[in-house]
Amino acid sequence: MPEPIESKEAVTPSNTSKPEVGLTGRKIIYDKDGKPCRSCNSLLDFQFATGGIKGIGATKKEKYNPYPKDIPADVEVLGKSSWTLLHSIAAKYPEKPDTKRQQDLKQFLTLFGSFYPCWFCGEDFEKYIKKHEPKVETQDSFGKWLCEAHNEVNVKLGKPKFDCNLWKKRWKDGWEEDP
Ligand SMILES: Cc1cc2nc3c(=O)[nH]c(=O)nc-3n(C[C@H](O)[C@H](O)[C@H](O)COP(=O)(O)OP(=O)(O)OC[C@H]3O[C@@H](n4cnc5c(N)ncnc54)[C@H](O)[C@@H]3O)c2cc1C
């Protein structure tokens, strides 16, 4: 069984018939058992690697269904939802947390990385935490630390950095109305 591989050197099963690159142009990521990783790839690439998946959604719209046949999250849906949760936690984090709360948050972040379904994303997040200790002393210090952690991933994916001075407007207070 191959060792876990970081995103930068993502899986390259060149000795098999498995595709290495998906339709998005990104490398296809495989789980440690060799199967395409649904929560590590975009839906398009996952479908490409698996030769198509069933159950993308109901085709007939007969009557309202409160639970349509939604499908499991791909790397983007999972990522957006997860960042929303993390930044929203920062927005609700106390201005002056006691020591216990600070310790709990650090532990949560480590466990979050370890349980994150996109395994290489989680591993990179855990490495980031080890290198850059979470700043959990105040709400603002944590909000900015998290913003920088998110920016690290943005840069890795070739996206622009977010201005971390604006994290509270985006995730807590909202933006002022245009004049
Ligand atoms: C811990 C973690 C690690 C990840 N690692 C990877 C990875 O290795 N490879 C991979 O392909 N995907 C990874 N992802 C997913 C990736 O970061 C994105 O979530 C995904 O690509 C969808 O991007 P998006 O454009 O919808 O916006 P997202 O990056 O999900 O951002 C959502 C919203 O947050 C706001 N925002 C953007 N940047 C910041 C910031 N720095 N601070 C505050 N707010 C911000 C913007 O309003 C944006 O619309 C990871 C996600 C998480 C939670």
Automatic annotation (TrEMBL):
GO CC terms in record: mitochondrial intermembrane space
Keyword annotations: Disulfide bond, FAD, Flavoprotein, Mitochondrion, Oxidoreductase
Organism expressing this protein natively: Scheffersomyces stipitis (strain ATCC 58785 / CBS 6054 / NBRC 10063 / NRRL Y-11545) (Yeast)
Protein's cellular compartments: Mitochondrion intermembrane space
Any one GO MF annotation of this record: flavin adenine dinucleotide binding
Pfam families the record matches: Evr1_Alr
Primary location recorded for the protein, binned into one broad class: mitochondrion
Protein's UniProt keywords contain Mitochondrion: yes
Gene3D superfamilies on file: 4.10.320.60, ERV/ALR sulfhydryl oxidase domain
Annotated stretches, region: Disordered: 1-23
GO biological process, one term: mitochondrial disulfide relay system
Necessary cofactors: FAD
Identification of the protein by name: Sulfhydryl oxidase
The ERV/ALR sulfhydryl oxidase domain, residue ranges: 71-171
EC nos: 1.8.3.2
InterPro entries attached to this UniProt entry: ALR/ERV (IPR039799), ERV/ALR_sulphydryl_oxid_sf (IPR036774), ERV/ALR_sulphydryl_oxidase (IPR017905)
Catalytic reactions on record: 2 R'C(R)SH + O2 = R'C(R)S-S(R)CR' + H2O2
